[in-house]
UniProtKB/TrEMBL annotation:
Record family assignment: Belongs to the GTP-binding SRP family. SRP54 subfamily.
Record flagged with keyword RNA-binding: yes
Coiled coil start-end: none
Chain residues that bind GTP: 99-106, 181-185, 239-242
Name the record gives this protein: Signal recognition particle protein
Location in or out of the cell: Cytoplasm
CDD domains assigned: SRP_G
């Protein structure tokens, strides 16, 4: 069960106004769910004590309980230090990525690079993990995918030299940010720490990020603490927060380690990263959504000019297959369906059921893409050109049956008709009218 669900259960225990016994039940439930979610026991005890006192002071009720919980959780998540990404006054801002093997360093390096690129920054990533054979190749693939420059040197065996050379390139070629991916080990060892220290001394990074795997629970906190003691860290990035994590690590890691949580990774795809903003996360944990976060995410990704053009086309009934592919590409930039749903008030509870839904790779979308792939440019521009012989050719080329092609074409036609109707009736209002 998700932490959001158990918190809801706790809130629901309070049935009557000013009922002390029901508050006790709610507090017991809350405590149990926090502990079960891997929140540190000391943290839990402190938190529930405060929630109980605050609720009583405000007058027992579901609202006052929720408010107290919200304010205590926010307090817990607020650690002194930087939030999100902070740029140095003398570019390039150099960030050293650290963490254990498999924690998500390379993926997070790519996600951060993509995040910054979307915000119009010139980014260079450096491949300094020479421990694993495939590590450099992995970063190369990620860099190519997100179209960000990478520095690597297949003939160099010393990560310190590569980091240094990457920084020289970033300085000379006026990059805004340099992200240095490094090697990890399965457990902390002296060699790993010594190598990291050497890289750190060579490039003097503006910040050191520690990537913690949220699936490792309490261990994530322990390891982060020892990295902090041995090389110093300025921020934690919590990866895999989308997985079967119990969620509690996010609530205690910053507080326990004494370093702010800066970003959270919420999926395997490049857009699946978010700035960690305490009150927004709390709002999501409580199932209240995060409209601000959603608006920010969409505005960074959606090209307004293009969106307006598409709306115009829809209104004229000219929406074609190329427009459809554009829309799909835009959707995929938003990241996983699950991460988006969690931000919509009232829908965050649904994310469990939709956990594995992969819109882009669903069989429907794959079939549509295959079909469009077998069309001529003219056919893509003008869906009305379709006739039996063209359909036959497209079916053959795409590996779909003629029945499938017919079905998709019909769906597409209906969808554009519907969209046209809606847009002429005035967007969302039209939709509401049709549904009521
Ligand atoms: P590294 O060894 O620290 O560089 O770890 P990698 O970046 O290679 O990641 C290890 C695995 O974790 C890969 O399969 C990634 O796709 C996966 N991964 C990383 N971050 C996330 C995340 O936020 N969510 C999910 N579901 N998987 C992730
Ligand atoms: Mg790696």
């Amino acid at each position: 069960d998700s932490i959001t669900g158990s918190i809801k259960n706790a809130v629901n225990k309070i049935r009557h106004k000013d009922d002390v016994a029901s508050l006790k039940k709610a507090i017991t439930e809350l405590k149990k769910s926090l502990l079960k979610a891997d929140v540190h026991h000391k943290t839990t005890k402190e938190l529930v004590t405060n929630v109980e006192l605050e609720t009583k002071a405000a007058g027992i009720g579901q609202d006052s309980f929720l408010n107290a919980l919200k304010s205590e959780l926010t307090k817990l998540l607020t650690t002194e230090g930087n939030q999100g990404f902070v740029f140095s006054s003398t570019p390039p801002t150099t960030i050293l990525m650290t963490g254990l093997q498999g924690s998500g360093k390379t993926t997070t390096t790519g996600k951060l690079a993509n995040y910054l690129k979307t915000r119009k920054k010139k980014v260079l990533v450096a491949a300094c993990d020479l421990q694993r054979l495939a590590a450099v190749e992995q970063l190369k693939q990620i860099a190519a995918q997100i179209e960000v420059d990478i520095y690597f040197d297949d003939n160099e065996k010393d990560p310190v030299k590569i980091a240094k050379a990457a920084q020289e390139k970033a300085t000379k070629e006026l990059y805004d940010v340099l992200l240095i991916d490094t090697a990890g080990r399965l457990a902390i060892d002296e060699e790993l720490m010594a190598q990291l220290k050497n890289v750190k001394d060579a490039v003097n990074p503006d910040e050191i990020f520690y990537v913690a795997d949220s699936l490792t629970g309490h261990d994530a906190t322990k390891t982060a603490t020892s990295f902090k003691e041995q090389i110093g860290i300025d921020g934690v990035v919590l990866s895999k927060y989308d997985g079967d994590t119990k969620g509690g690590v996010a609530l205690s890691i910053a507080h326990q380690v004494g370093v702010p949580l800066r970003f959270i990774g919420i999926g395997e795809k490049m857009p699946d990263i978010e700035v960690f903003i305490p009150d927004r996360i709390v709002s999501r944990l409580l199932g209240l959504g995060d409209i601000e976060g959603l608006a920010e995410k969409t505005s960074a990704v959606i090209d307004e000019k293009k969106a307006k053009e598409v709306t115009k086309k829809i209104k004229k009934g000219q929406f074609n297959f190329n427009d459809f592919l554009d829309q799909l590409a835009m959707m995929s930039k938003l990241g996983s369906m699950k991460s988006i749903l969690g931000m919509i008030p009232g829908l965050s509870g649904m994310t469990g059921a939709l956990k594995d839904m992969d819109f882009e790779n669903s069989s429907e979308i794959r079939s549509i893409k295959a079909m469009i792939g077998s069309m001529t440019p003219k056919e893509r521009e003008n869906p009305d050109l379709m006739n039996p012989s063209r359909k036959k050719r497209i079916a053959k080329g795409s590996g779909l049956s003629e029945v499938q092609v017919n079905k998709i074409l019909k769906q597409f036609k209906n969808a554009s008709k519907m969209a046209k109707k809606l847009s002429s009736k005035g967007g969302m209002k039209g939709l509401q009218n049709m549904m009521s």
